[in-house]
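Quick one, C-alpha cells below. Sequence please?
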C-alpha cells in the first residue's frame, strides 16, 4: 500500500467501503470489507483501479469450429452478482439475459468451487456477443446496462456449433 498519497473519501453508495488512492496512481481505488456473521473477524478487499479495456478474450483458445455450450463461472474478486447478456451478433437483438449470477466461491476462497455455472446453448452457425455486466463497478452507476462501457466486466464473441465443445469461461479471466 502506498501510504503517502493515500486518502479516504466518503463511503461509496451501495458498497461497504470507501474510495481512496491506495496505489498512488491518482485514481480512486475501492476498499471493501466484510464482517463475519459471528465474532469480530473482518475481511478486507482492495480493488485497485487500472486503466484497462474490457476483456475480449477469455483464457484458453476460442474453439475454432464453434461452441456447442457456453458455461460462465462468476469468480469476480468483488464477490458480487453479475448479469450476463447475449446478443445476436448480426442484428444486435437480445437473445437472453440473466437475472443475476452469484459468485461461486467456497468458504476457503476457492473459485469456481460451488454451485453451477450460467450456461447458454448457441444455435448452430449463429454468431453471438456476450457481455458480462457488474452494476456496482466503478463507472457504472448501479445500472444493469450492457450499453454502458463502465458496466462491462467482460465481453466475448462466439459462434454456435451443434455438437461442438463446451467452452468454460471464468470471469474475470485468470
Amino acid at each position: 500500500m502506498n501510504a503517502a498519497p493515500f486518502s479516504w473519501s466518503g463511503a461509496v453508495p451501495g458498497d461497504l467501503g470507501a474510495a481512496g488512492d491506495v496505489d498512488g496512481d491518482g485514481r480512486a481505488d475501492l476498499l471493501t470489507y466484510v464482517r463475519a456473521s459471528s465474532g469480530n473477524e473482518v475481511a478486507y478487499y482492495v480493488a485497485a483501479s487500472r486503466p484497462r479495456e474490457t476483456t475480449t478474450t477469455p483464457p484458453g483458445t476460442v474453439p475454432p469450429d464453434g461452441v456447442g455450450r457456453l458455461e460462465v463461472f462468476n469468480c469476480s474478486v468483488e464477490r458480487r452478482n453479475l448479469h450476463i447478456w447475449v446478443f445476436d451478433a448480426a442484428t444486435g437483438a437480445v437473445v437472453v439475459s440473466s437475472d443475476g449470477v452469484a459468485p461461486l466461491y467456497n468458504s476457503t476462497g476457492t473459485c469456481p468451487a460451488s454451485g453451477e455455472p450460467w450456461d447458454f446453448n448457441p444455435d448452430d452457425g449463429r454468431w453471438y456477443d456476450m457481455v458480462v455486466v457488474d452494476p456496482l463497478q466503478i463507472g457504472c452507476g448501479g445500472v444493469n446496462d450492457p450499453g454502458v462501457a463502465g458496466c462491462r466486466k467482460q465481453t466475448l464473441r462466439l459462434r454456435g456449433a451443434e455438437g461442438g465443445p463446451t467452452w468454460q469461461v471464468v470471469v474475470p479471466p485468470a
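The two ends are 23 Å apart (CA to CA). The domain at 69-171 is CATH 2.60.40 (Immunoglobulin-like).
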